[in-house]
Design goal:
This protein is of the alpha+beta class. The chain has helices at residues 2-10, 15-32, 64-67, 70-85, 99-110, 113-116, 120-137, 153-164, 189-217, 220-223, 232-242, 246-255, 260-277, 309-312, 315-330, 344-355, 358-361, 365-382, 398-409, 434-444; strands spanning 40-47, 53-61, 144-145, 148-152, 169-177, 285-292, 298-306, 389-390, 393-397, 414-422.
């Protein structure tokens, strides 16, 4: 209230001028806070309607107290939405632009015909102006704020800094657009359905022809195999456990003598065999999902693909994607999706180190390579998402979960990528006692 009164007095009662005066005062105040360390804050996320676009970001402040406040939470949500709305942005501030890219672009610009026609003494200045414009167009902080285009994101953050009284900064972000850079099927869906129906009809006809021959070939003891009585209760139990169809559950129980555990494994093996056949298909549809852990100190963004938009909109697929996002958050060691995604240079370097270790040198030379390879495989698998135990059912891995879902849904499903942010990781943190800091600030007044 007193700031508003002073602003109006300074600006002769003009509200518009007073608003500008307060904004400038706020920015000046915010600039003074720029040298402080901001290692608290929150991880935010935004998933656009339809799950085709997703963002995860980290916004920092100085204290956990401010991070828990509604004003800061609103800011984080705004920043996540801003990132989603800006299609061209690649980094937070202009300073983060790739210097090599800027230098290369400068060379190109200096050789352009329109530039060579200009007086030599002003060419550098014109090119620098073009480069600044290009760099700023890709910087989040230089974009007009979507909720008030009269200010930039940078100005919005400075105003909030002045309002809250702590340094606030956007540290990093990741944005996923579903299927970007992937090959997409151009095949007509109606034609595909017709082709699949025809293939199923032909397969059924073949089975019908082969059935009499199979009956003749069956051993006498198999013909005499007694039918196992399966109760509705057993079928329900197996369905709840496996998620398979009722007739599949009944058949599995009959094949396994009514043993639910064996029938579960039988279904899983059957599902995996079915899933493996779908592995060569193109999966460029799907969904982007996020998971923010309680307290907003850990956040995950994940892209999971399937073959059709119809499946992507289904509850079963949505549940799977949510499970995968939570799985990534629950596995602190994971760095990539599959073992094949591991950095080969890192593996080769680790192999060199392992081969020179004392315990390996003490082993017979002919088995050293095999021992080291075993260690490397273990290390790589520990960092691969697909090789982790599924958090909701540790009897199977994430890879097996995906294969089961592929068999159940009938489409290829794959985890394409993920990003995980832990608040403040790698940042310097203040060790100063907060009570002492407050006392120090009170002493200055």
């Amino acid at each position: 209230m007193m700031d508003c009164k002073k602003a109006l007095q300074e600006c002769g009662g003009d509200i518009e001028e007073a608003t500008t005066w307060l904004r400038k005062k706020g920015m000046a105040s915010a600039d003074k806070k720029a040298s402080r360390i901001a290692a608290e804050g929150a991880i935010g996320a935004y998933i656009h309607s339809g799950s085709q676009l997703g963002v995860v970001c980290e916004v920092n402040c100085e204290t956990d107290f401010v991070a828990r406040g509604d004003r800061f939470k609103e800011l984080v949500a705004d920043i996540a939405m801003q990132i989603a709305a800006c299609t061209e942005i690649e980094y937070v501030s202009p300073e983060e632009a790739d210097p090599a890219m800027v230098a290369k672009e400068k060379e190109v610009q200096m050789q352009m015909e329109d530039m060579l026609s200009k007086p030599e003494n002003i060419r550098e200045k014109i090119v620098q102006g073009r480069l600044d414009k290009m760099v700023n167009e890709k910087a989040l902080l230089k974009q007009p704020f979507i909720k008030d285009t009269s200010m930039t994101v940078e100005e919005y953050i400075k105003e909030t800094t002045a309002s809250i009284g702590e340094k606030i900064s956007v540290r990093r972000f990741v944005k996923y657009n579903l299927g970007e850079g992937m090959e997409k099927r151009e095949e007509d869906f109606a034609a595909e359905v017709e082709a699949q129906t025809k293939a199923l009809a032909e397969k059924a006809a073949e089975k019908k022809e082969e059935a009499p021959k199979e009956e003749e070939a069956k051993p006498a003891e198999e013909e005499a195999k007694p039918a196992v009585a399966v109760s509705a209760k057993q079928v329900k139990e197996l369905r709840d456990k496996s998620g398979a169809g009722m007739m599949d559950c009944k058949k599995a129980l009959q094949e396994c003598g009514g043993d639910v555990e064996e029938a579960t494994n039988w279904l899983r093996k059957k599902g995996m065999a079915s899933a493996d056949k779908k592995a060569s298909r193109i999966a460029a549809e799907g969904a982007i999902a996020q998971y923010i852990h309680a307290g907003a100190r850990l956040g995950v963004l994940v892209e999971v693909n399937c073959e059709t938009d119809f499946v992507a909109r289904g509850d079963r697929f949505k549940e799977l994607v949510a499970d995968i996002a939570m799985q990534v958050a629950a596995c602190p060691e994971v760095e990539y999706v599959a073992p094949e995604d591991a950095d080969q240079a890192m593996i080769e370097k680790e192999k060199e180190v392992q081969l020179k270790m004392e315990d390996i040198l003490s082993k017979p030379e002919n088995i050293r390579e095999k021992i080291v390879q075993g260690r490397l495989d273990k290390m790589v698998n520990e960092k691969a998402l697909l090789k982790q135990d599924f958090i909701k059912d540790t009897s199977k891995t994430v890879e097996e979960l995906i294969k089961e879902a592929t068999a159940e849904i009938g489409e290829k499903i794959s985890i394409r990528r993920f990003a995980k942010f832990n608040l403040g990781e790698g940042m310097e943190k203040r060790e100063e006692d907060f009570a002492a800091e407050v006392a120090a600030q009170m002493g200055k007044k």
